[in-house]
Design a protein that fits this description.
It is built from 10 helices and 11 strands. By secondary structure, it is α/β, with parallel strands linked by helices.
Length: 279
Amino acid sequence: MELLDGKKLRTEILAKIKSEVTLLSFQPIFCDILVGNDPSSAQYVKMKAKTAESVGIKFHNANFPTSITTGELVEEIKTLNKIKNMCGIIVQLPLPEHLDKRAILDAIDPHLDVDCLGTSASAEFYSGLTAGGIGFPTALACMALLDSLNLNLKGKILVVLGQGELVGRPTAALLRYRGLTYLNISSKTENKAYLLRQADIVISGMGKGKHITGNMIKDGAVIIDAGTSESEGGIVGDVDLESVKNIASHVSPVPGGVGPVTVAMLLNNVLNVAKKLKQ
């Protein structure tokens, strides 16, 4: 079994983004809105800021106190939408419970919604209008890892596990946009164990720690693991790596697989917005 190196792929994608950013006539701006002072959220935003700056994308700080109201934050976002050369705005989740997440996400200009979590941006993605452009970063990361293997996917049996907002549904849509046949397995699917064992390629976003074991998959299967769960103080994926190591041909590990590539694909979305702005 070969582990897919997400960090290596991230480095390659970021290098390409950096080279394309230098060709722009302006410096694109990216903003990750942070409400409150949750340490893990703040650290994640800091990492994205550092990564953005490393490829020539300017990071715009937008930190607000937990006491901010939904109405106030919506107005702040409307102001951010109007900043010259703004090419991407996202909201660091989760938000404090008193805030209306839907109203806040929908306040982002759909053309700047590089997480695709707003109603309009999401609808545009699922209509196929943004195929090949802006998309859900985690789903794009799954596809980037799969593409790194240079497999001929035509005729392969592809299975997507889960129908979640960030992985299952958008990844299935990306496969559909490519004209690929796939099965989307959920908890309600009949004969799911049998169907999973037929899969040449499995993309999983269930969030069930070490759920996929060797006896559940086909010999030589490729598994893209986008699931994350907490276990004994650490993060694990949907795949039990020890169990599948002599059966699967390739697996993306957690951590170190889809995660690193997701941030790169987020910034690639920012770049794609910048290219359209240039036009």
